[in-house]
Amino acid sequence: MKDTTKKNKNQQPFRSEARRRKVEAAKKRAMEKQKQAQQHAGENPEIEKQIDSAMEKIIQETIGEEISKEEAVREAVSAKEEAGKEENVKQENENVNQENVKQEEVSKEEVPVEKEEQEENTEEKSQEESTLKEEEYVKEEQLSEEEPFKESPSEEPSSEEAVASAIAVEPIPVTAEQIVDSEISDETGNAKKKLKPSMIAGAAAAILVVGYAAGALYYTNHLFAGSKINGMDCANMTEKKADAALKKQVESYEIELDFRNNESRTISGSDIGYQYIGSGDVKDVMKKQNPLLWVSGLFSKKNYNVEIDANFDKTALKAQLDGLDCLQEANMEAPADAQIAFVDNQFVIQDETQGTTIDEGTLLTALEEAVCTSQTKLSVEKTGAYAKPSVTKDDETLIHQKDIWNSCATATITYTFGDEQEVLDGMQIKDWLSYDEEGNYVENKEAVMAHIKEYVLDLATRRNTMGRDRTITSTMTGEPVTVSGGSYGFRIDQSEEAEQIYENIVNHDVVTREPAYASRAAIYSMTGDDIGNTYVEVDLGNQHLWYYKEGTLIMDTDFVSGTYTISDRRTPSGTYSLMYKQKDQVLRGTRRSDGTYEYESPVKYWMPFNGGIGFHDASWRYSFGGSIFMYSGSHGCVNLPSSMASELYENIEAGCPILCFY
User: Fold this and answer.
1) pLDDT per residue over 385-435, tens digit each?
2) Residue 195: how many other CB atoms lie within 10 Å
3) CA dihedral in degrees (425, 428, 429, 430; nearest 10)?
4) What is the DSSP-derived secondary structure letter of residue 44?
């Protein structure tokens, strides 16, 4: 009987030896790839950490219990190799086991040598087949080992790629469920127990418990993930980091002041020495956190408002405020009270004007408080620093006064003076009326008329044109001549105009009219150019006159004026207007005591322009012009040849300007 113990011992390595070789080859290849991955990863502890984590994951998924990393690599490689040949390996294991059983029986029972040799031949044949399969498998492993490690020449692998290169020799074509459901054999070929789903669930629960406990421990000195302090994100910060972040935020502080008219100015914290002192409120916030509830921070955000302890220079703050352009007196507008105005022939209340005048003391106090509390905006309006009007549109006394005036002083008189206008309306009339202590209107004509007469006198003084200087161009010399004095021009009849104004007030009239005039001119003008282009130019020095009608010379003639050497007979200079014209009149001098006249001269054409002085024919004279007027002139009138007097009479009209000058 041959000794088969050695053979049996050597036959077992078909599985164990082949497995050992495969494990060694896989281990070698995995270590090389891990080394290459680490070279690509460099000294990156994060990648190394991921490699270790991934290897642990393979360990747990492969055997479900704590084993060494070397054994995990072997089992991961073996799982891959055995996955595709599982049925063959099982069959081979069964054959080997059967052969072992047979050998044991043969050992116990002495069988014939022939039978033993036959069985030995069978075993040798089986051994040869196994050896061939083993050599074929080792050859495949060698080819796999010789396959070069592929990498991109220009790109370094990511941390995930480095981990995969280190622990994933080749993708294992089995899932976790398959591993759990399949039998995992050890080196002796004996099947281990299956990993049950309850074991997986227990492991997952253990991981969750450990993770939760780690989070609770972490958040004992960290702010929750959704934490904010004064609107600043402080997620996962320690007290020290959160305090540093608050310091950085505080020292970039600035405050914006909002003024009226949509204007704003900014004061920077750096300009007022604004410094962060610190705050224990961050610690208080952390105390409010319950580390066991750290998971809630992952799903909700919470803002904590804390008081910041900071310091600033009040003197510097005042200097910054004083320097603002909108606080300069020249740029501020004072407020205005609501008032009554006369618009469209009625009294109305005009709203008060708020203005932009600021009480700097009030504003400074509010600003200091805002900076102390780290406010970033300050409405100047809300501080009450703006000066306020004393009377508003809602004032009851103002409203009552408006109603009274609308009942008694709504007349409007618009005077026309040529192209100019002047208005007398209720705003002035209301001041002429009388009121009782409660502001009610009291009729008093005498008082009203006194005010009206005063107004008319002022109007006449400003608007009368009578006696003003007037300048014309001398026809004789071509030079400008200024004529002073005379009665020509507009003159307001003050008595009549006063009565007319009172009537307009009583009737609440709204009228446009000229004032009542006692005399008029051809054209209204305050500059003296009121002669127009129809006038008589009387050159007393040269004893000649020219009559222009609408700019055209109608006639001219010599004349004899009043005796120059006798002052009360000298023809006065000045501008006048023709009063009227008459035919066949007798001109008489001063009446004597006996009833006779100093002289009586019948004339055919009489045209007075200055009281008893006028143009007329002088049939008793045979010559005109020259120097006759010096010693033998008239009593003051302008004596004309009869034919010239007739022509002038036929063309001139009352009101025509007469300019007399020497």
Assistant:
1) 999 999 999 999 899 989 999 988 899 999 999 999 999 999 999 999 999
2) 22
3) 120
4) -
DSSP 123: H
Q: Where are the domains of the chain?
A: 210-330, 333-393, 408-471+478-519, 535-660
Q: Would you say residue 179 has pLDDT above 60?
A: no
Helix segments in 568-641, DSSP class H: 628-632
| Six-digit token string for 492 | 């307001």
- Is pLDDT of 59 > 90? no
pLDDT of residue 136: 55
- pLDDT score recorded for residue 393: 93
583-600 average pLDDT score: 92
CA distance 412 to 573: 41
DSSP line for 253-307: -EEEEEETTTEEEEEEGGGTT-EE---THHHHHHHH--GGGGGGGGT--EEE---
**Nearest CA-CA partner of 259 in 390, 362, 385:** 385
Vertex 405, ends 402 and 408: CA angle to 5°? 155
Query: What pLDDT score was predicted for residue 481?
Result: 95
126 to each of 19, 190, 535, how far by Cα in Å? 18, 20, 159
- The hierarchical CATH code for the domain 408-471+478-519 is 3.10.20.800
In sequence order, the 6+-apart residues with CB closer than 8 A to the CB of 10 are: none
* Alpha-carbon torsion, ordered 410, 416, 420, 424, to 10 deg: -20
Please give the pLDDT value at position 391: 94
The single-letter code of the amino acid at 400 is H
Provide the CB-side half-sphere exposure for 112 (13 A, CA): 3
d(CA 606, CA 613) in angstroms, rounded, equals: 10
- How many whole angstroms separate alpha carbon 511 and alpha carbon 423? 10
Residues 6 or more apart whose CB falls under 8 angstroms from that of 193 comprise none
Tens of pLDDT, residues 496-539: 999 999 999 999 999 999 999 999 998 998 887 899 999 999 99
Q: Do domains 408-471+478-519 and 535-660 have the same CATH topology?
A: no
Question: Is the model's pTM score more than 0.85?
Answer: no
More reliable by pLDDT, 655 or 213: 655
Give the Cα-Cα-Cα angle 221, 252, 310 (nearest 5 degrees). Answer: 65
Q: Taking each helix axis from N to C terminus, what angle separates 45-63 and 159-167, rounded to the nearest 10 degrees?
A: 40
Tell whether the model's pLDDT for residue 345 goes beyond 70.
yes
- When the candidates are 2.40.440.10, 2.60.40.10, 3.30.230.10, 3.40.30.10, the CATH number that belongs to 535-660 is 2.40.440.10
Report the candidate in 413, 419, 421 with the shortest Cα–Cα distance to residue 524: 419
